[in-house]
């Protein structure tokens, strides 16, 4: 079973944000474990919805922090947050309604792939760029 592994490469040096990222990684791993353990659909939806809610809270906290410090890339960063949340919510909706060309199994597979990559890729490509800006304020 493939799970997501935390590495110092993903640390952005802001303890609260790093803790949030680790928490989200653990939540994604719980979802992946439930998929591989063939848990029922209601359980998978519940786990995905908790990930989405936790992600929303994290994104809001991160955006407030960046706004407070005057991060010049905030609008672009927030747009990426909004896109990720829309994608996750669309997957959750499709899981609930069993809509789509790929059927329920395909939707679960898409969701697994999405969760397996979005968090770490988002940290690497969208969060790491604000690290030098925040360090310059110290």
Percent strand equals under 5%
The number of helices is: 5
The Rg value, from CA coordinates, equals 16 Å
Percentage of residues assigned to helices: over 70%
Main pleated-sheet profile = none
Distance between the termini: 42 Å
Classify the secondary structure makeup into a structural class: mainly alpha
Average pLDDT figure: 88
Strand segment count = 0
Overall outline: elongated
Write a concise synopsis of the structure shown.
The protein is mainly α. 76% of the residues lie in helices and 0% in strands.
Explain this structure to me?
The chain is mainly α. It is built from 5 helices and no strands. The chain has helices at 15-36, 41-68, 74-97, 103-127, 131-136. The longest helix is centred in the middle third of the chain and has 28 residues, at 41-68. The model has no long low-confidence stretch (mean pLDDT 88).
Strand-helix topology:
Elements: H1 15-36, H2 41-68, H3 74-97, H4 103-127, H5 131-136
Helix pairs in contact: 1-2, 1-4, 2-3, 3-4
Keywords for this entry:
5 helices; mainly alpha
């Amino acid at each position: 079973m493939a799970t997501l592994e935390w590495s110092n490469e993903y640390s952005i040096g802001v303890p609260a944000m790093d803790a949030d990222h680790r928490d989200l990684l653990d939540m994604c791993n719980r979802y992946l474990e439930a998929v591989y353990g063939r848990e029922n659909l209601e359980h998978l939806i519940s786990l995905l919805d908790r990930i989405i809610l936790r992600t929303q809270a994290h994104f809001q906290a991160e955006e407030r922090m960046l706004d407070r410090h005057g991060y010049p890339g905030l609008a672009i960063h927030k747009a990426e947050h909004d896109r990720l949340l829309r994608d996750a919510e669309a997957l959750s909706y499709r899981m609930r309604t069993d809509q789509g060309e790929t059927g329920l199994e395909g939707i679960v597979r898409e969701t697994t792939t999405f969760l397996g990559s979005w968090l770490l890729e988002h940290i690497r490509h969208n969060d790491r760029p604000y690290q030098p800006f925040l360090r310059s304020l110290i």
